[in-house]
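Extended Data, panel c. Modelled sequence:
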Amino acid sequence: MRRLLKSLNYAVAVFPSAAEFLASPKFAATACLVADIHMPAMTGVELYEQLIERGQVIPTILITAYPDDDAQERMLKLGVECYLRKPLVEAILIDCLRCAIARGKAARG
């Protein structure tokens, strides 16, 4: 995924965990977050909920190999831009990314 996004001229930062992302100096400049739902220690869902609690919602795309319709509905209601199932369709990921970044820019004014 990193190669794909870099090939589209996006700046990409990869973090080994949700906690390291939250502690990163790049956190504040993040235009879009792409996270797997099933990560160790803190899931993608928990990460997004943590952002909401902090009042620092970043346009977010969640990805999973284990889709759950109830979780998808809940996350979309909470404001997640896209909830994608693996294997990813690159064109759908790219569309979601473009929409998420555009929404983030519009929200910042």
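Residues 31 and 102 are 9 Å apart (CA to CA). This feature is highlighted in the accompanying rendering.
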